[in-house]
Amino acid sequence: MDRRKSIKTLALGTLSAEVWLNACSPATKNKQAPEGSATGEGKAPWAGNFEKWETSSGRQPAEKERDKRLMAQKFFTDEEMKTITVLVDIIIPADEHSGSATDAGVPEFIEFIVKDMPEHQVPMRGGLRWLDVECLNRYQKRFTDCESGQQIALIEDIAYPDEVDETLRPGAHFFSLMRNLTASGFYSSKIGIQDIGYVGNTPTIWDGVPDDVLRQYGLSYDEKTLAECVKKEDHNKMFVFDA
Amino acid sequence: MATFQIKKSPGVYDVCIVGSGAGGGMAAYLLSQAGYKVALMEAGGMFDPKDPRYRTQLKWSYESPRRGAGTTRPFGDFDAAWGGWAIDGEPYTHTAGTRFDWFRSRMIGGRTNHWGRISLRFGPRDFKHKSVDGLGDDWPISYDDVAPYYDKVDKLIGVFGTREGIYNEPDGQFLPPPKPRLHELMMKAGAAKAGVKVMPARLSMLTRPINQDRQVCFYCSQCSRSCQVYADFSSSSVLIQPAMKTNHMDVYTQAMVREVLTDSNGLATGVSYVHKGDMQEYQLRAKVVVLAASACESARLLLNSKSPRYPNGLANSSNVVGKYLHDSTGASRGAILPQLFGRKRYNEDGVGGMHLYSPWWLDNKKLDFPRGYHIEYGGGMHMPGYGFSWGIEGLNGKYPGADGKKKRGGGYGKSLKEDYRYFYGAGFGMAGRGECIAREDNYCEIDPNTVDQYGIPVLRFNYTWSDHEIKQVKHMHDTFEEIIHNMGGVPLGTKPGPETNYGISTPGEIIHEVGTTRMGDDPKRSVLNKFNQAHDCKNLFVVDGGAFVSQADKNPTWTILALSWRATEYLMDQMKKGNI
Fold first, then answer.
1. Which of A158, B475, B488, B574 is deepest in the core (most CB within 10 A)?
2. CA–CA separation, A73 vs A33, rounded Å?
3. Which residues of B are less than 8 Å from A63 in CB distance?
């Protein structure tokens, strides 16, 4: 199918004119944000803590004003959010270790971060549009109306940027951005931090690399290091300087 | 509308200090403890890392809506510093074709709330480097003059390190350092093969308690968030809080000082300032004025303090104020350590920053550039935040995954999740921080056409790197690659070449700017004498990095603290003798 022709068809009404206009003009859309959006306002995993964050982390007046303004705005359309929700779970599905990207609130995170970092707005909006146009060419349906098998067939074609077909390069570029934003949102969530196995951010006493790890890499602390480094048993012992 | 007038404070303070960072904090601490009546001026708000309203320490990435990204705070949402490279309503400008990035922190404690706590003494050579290589100028003081004050600073504030006996890296009164982390042990072996010296870092964090007011480090690696138990050094927690408890000090926050006021005899009589909250104009009188607003802000204040007696600014008969501005050189390189793929998980947060570092280890006589650099190292299993594993599509196709099979780069689904787990904690980074030669033609001056929102004329910067610095940074990159290869790592990205001046940092970017009110014995070539006292005005002192003649390949904070202590002791002695 002639790609040019299909875009023309699209513009003439296969998808609503509103979506087309919004794709051209993200700024306009912000002002038309309908209430009760697909972003699940109030339901984001951190949304309940937002007030706390704003009042207990040293936020400056300009930061508070900006955050509040961003929170009140809506960038993605409901249809776009629907696509994002499908995509993030294709990228990070639930497995035997942890939940999925949507379980971790990734779509809500993406909605916020594109408002916070406007440089992501055109690549995201345009990429989502590219995806729908590609589906329209292939399956005469938008992405979210496709069968799961059809969606995966398309994702397979754009998920490996080094091997992508020249004509699908914009899709691969977009999908890499989706993958990266999804990872940012997922692994910075409670679920993701547990999944990745980060066990810090808590008071402890650092006493060096565990012995079994040292053995694994054939490393050890030399005598000098052991002699001069702080001893665990001295952790709370008052240090007395030489006179 | 209320009448617009200047409100004058009724009393006279003994000392008015402008700025609450390292230099101002030290002066405030010593003067208030000694019973002098002190006014401390701060252009930002009150800050105490212990206060729950200000805390970012031990918060999780998901508590920040941007997951710690640096959208509004250049060093990330959890960074304690209020301010950044640009502050609304307070611009600065550049002469055509030059650039200087100016990081400002508007808060009690200033930039000490943010810094890496790398606390290095300048060595004997650093104070007399012109005598070694003919470049720049010697300081009017030597290491021996400053050494007793470094000792005092070490004992008051606390710094860990080891006694190494290296001539130009003088040892201090050290607390014991923490043991190296895994990637640091690997790096140490790799650096040794390259002939690069590696030793325990010297950071101002308490690995043992030193007094009742501050607790010991609990190893969360978050010093840049400022420590709620005061286990690291920031001026706010270690100097300003005790000074406030003396009841001899009044702290004026949101006080943006316009100029230093002088009388017909040319002596300082106080300062005028605008209060950012009520936008009223105030004057405050003091017998002595101590500037510690940061090298560039103090130079701006002096240049803006014009009077018939001081037509080109206060303490500027030499025309040197603003000149000899210099920041550290910087370059960095990232790498992947494949031997760490699939590594075992454990808490290796450690202290905030590196446990090991490399001091300058070579002889410049055998090199094509003057002066040295030190190397900082980073790596390990960090708390994921915004940008986590960004660009994995460029990584997971290059190495076999957890199952030993090489996949196509990118992907999605369960297999991708496996990859994120497998590659986690295998990153490694190195950063060089080197000495730049101070030059008269690198300067900040008053922009005659631009004022900030308070009507105060702003700074215009003129700064370029010379071949000295560019060749030094090229050498850094050669060293980085050698160490990375030696430790079995793979450098990321491409090594920058001559087309980008070898990736040298933007001037100002390393936030070590010094030199704008330099000290010297000759009043025609320097602003301050060897006790940080203005040649032209005996009751005016500058105790920030502006006083530096040269910056060495070291972070300036410990030397700012030592010189401020020395200057304040001298000031108190002169006041006692009735000379001031």
1. A158
2. 7
3. 72-73
Q: For residue B466, what are its two tokens?
A: 């010379």
- What Å distances lie between residue B351 and A66, A209, B67, CA to CA? 33, 14, 22
- B268-275 vs B93-94, strand pairing mode: unpaired
Q: Which of A192, A204, A217 comes nearest B347 by C-beta?
A: A204
Cα–Cα dist B283/B303, whole Å: 18
Q: Which residues contact A8 (CB under 8 A, 6 or more apart)?
A: none
pLDDT for A131-151, tens place per residue?
Answer: 999 999 999 999 999 999 999
Of B427, B394, B405, B401, whose CA–CA distance to B416 is shortest? B401
Q: Which residue has the tokens 């090199």?
A: B367
Closest CA to B179 of B379, B354, B58, B380: B354
Inter-CA distances, A102 with A139, B61, B153, B219, Å = 26, 17, 52, 33
The closest of B289, B253, B298 to B544, measured between CA atoms, is B298
Q: Which residue has tokens 């589906």? A: A135
Of B65, B185, B408, the CB nearest to A46: B65
Q: Which residues of A touch B344 (CB under 8 A)?
A: 210, 212-213, 216
- Cβ of B53 within 8 Å of Cβ of A199? The answer is no
How far is the C-alpha of A121 from the C-alpha of B495, rounded, in Å? 31
Coil/strand/helix, residue B260: strand
Q: Is the torsion defined by CA of A76, A82, A86, A92 positive or negative? A: positive
Q: Report which DSSP code applies to B543.
A: -
- The pLDDT tens digits for B439-461 are 999 999 999 999 999 999 999 99
Q: What are the chain B neighbours of A92 within 8 Å (beta carbons)? A: 416-417
Query: Is the predicted pLDDT of residue A9 greater than 50, yes or no?
Result: no
**Total residues found in chain B within this entry:** 580
Category of B110 on φ-ψ map: left (φ > 0), alpha (ψ -120 to 50) or beta: left
Tokens of B216: 């010991």
Of residues B255, B248, B234, the one with CA closest to residue B113: B234
Gap between the Cα atoms of A231 and A226, Å rounded: 8
CA distance linking residue A115 with residue B72, whole number of Å: 13
Interface residue A94 vs chain B (CB under 8 A) = no
Q: Which residues of B383-404 are buried (b: 16+ CB within 10 A; e: fewer)?
A: bbbbbbbeebbebbbebebeee
Residues paired with residue B250 on neighbouring β-strands, in sequence order: B39
In total, chain A counts a number of residues equal to 243
Q: What share of chain B is helix, strand, coil (3-state, %, to 5)?
A: 25, 20, 55
The answer to whether B121 touches B554, Cβ cutoff 8 Å, is yes
- Residue B223 CA to residue B234 CA, distance in Å, equals 9
| Residue B474: Cβ within 10 Å count | 21
Q: pLDDT category, A22, cuts 50, 70, 90?
A: very low
Span B193-207, mean pLDDT? 98
Instruction: Confirm if B280 and B7 have CB atoms less than 8 A apart.
Output: yes
The token pair at A167 is 């004509």
| Amino acid at position B251, single letter | V
Give just the sign of the alpha carbon dihedral B337, B343, B345, B348: negative
> Kind and range of the H or E element at B467?
helix B467-486
Question: Complex ipTM, two decimals?
Answer: 0.95
Q: What distance in Å separates residue A25's CA from the closest CA in chain B?
A: 23
Identify the DSSP state of A163: G
